[in-house]
Amino acid sequence: MKPVPVFHPTEEEFADFYKYVTSIESEVQPFGLCKIIPPASWVPRKSGYDNLDVEIPTPIRQYVQGSQGVYQVINVMEKKMTFEDFKREAQLQEERGLKAAKRRKKPDDKEDEFDEVEELERMYWKNLAFHAPLYGADMAGTLFEEPKGPSSWNLKYLDSLLNRKLPQRIPGVTEPYLYFGMWKAMFGCHTEDMELFSINYLHFGKPKVWYCAAPSQKERFERLAQVHKILFPTPINLLNFRSIIPIISRIALNFFGTSHPCSPLQSCALQALP
Questions:
Q1: DSSP readout, 80-107?
Q2: Most buried residue, 39, 76, 185, 223, by CB count within 10 Å?
């Protein structure tokens, strides 16, 4: 598994979103994903996140079924809830999963022999079908504050060709969506709308892990994804059902995607910083 490029722009470079993204595009393209760490001076929300007055209108409960690295996630809508209620549920999920992984580290384990992210990943795939998490998805809006000066990286005001040329804003494309997650909450493998670029900012909380199939592996990945249709051919009919999404572990990707011992299906992973 190859790590994606990580960039640390200077304040001067960070001041122009369009120019900076254009400058790194050729370096990122072979990976399909990158991480950009803003300068320490950049603050997207000066008022902080301690007293968020946010309501999650349609949280979804994510039920998982499957085995051997190939699964389907059944998203079922639940009643609206406050951010504080969601936070309490997230803390319960953390008790069940994250802390269990950390307890596996023994006092005499050397740092170079224990990778906490790797252990969390192992715990994630091992316990995927237990204790269905909640996910607050596709909420119109943002936690970025209205800018009083230049707003180069405010997701609501990004400089792009779409914003320059389109006569109206498009929700989830040129208008940001807000998401709340917790331990094991997920968004399945997909291609972005119209194969456009996507940008995400992690405001606060635990690190978030991404998987990305390299663009050069796109066709092989899509052929592999057909396995999902064979294993899960029957649509689900549930009250408050929202969607079914496929997820495939990177171990399954390498196993099923290998046509020769020296040509594994390459994948990239990104661990976002809080």
A1: -EEHHHHHHHHHHHHHHTHHHHHHTS-T
A2: 185
pLDDT digit string, tens, across residues 95-129: 877 666 565 555 565 555 556 777 778 888 888 88
Q: How far apart are CA 214 and CA 191, in angstroms?
A: 12
CA atoms within 13 A on the CB side of 248: 23
d(CA 247, CA 219): 17
Three-state SS across 186-242?
CCCCCCCHHHCCCCCCCCCCCCEEEEEECHHHHHHHHHHHHHHHHHCCCCCCCCCEE
Q: CB of 154 within 8 A of CB of 17?
A: no
Distance between CA atoms of residues 96 and 108, nearest Å: 24
Query: What are the structure tokens assigned to 32, written together?
Result: 């399909």
Q: What is the pTM of this model?
A: 0.81
Q: Are strands 70-77 and 60-67 parallel, antiparallel or unpaired?
A: antiparallel
Q: With H, G, I as helix, E, B as strand and everything else as coil, classify residue 9.
A: coil
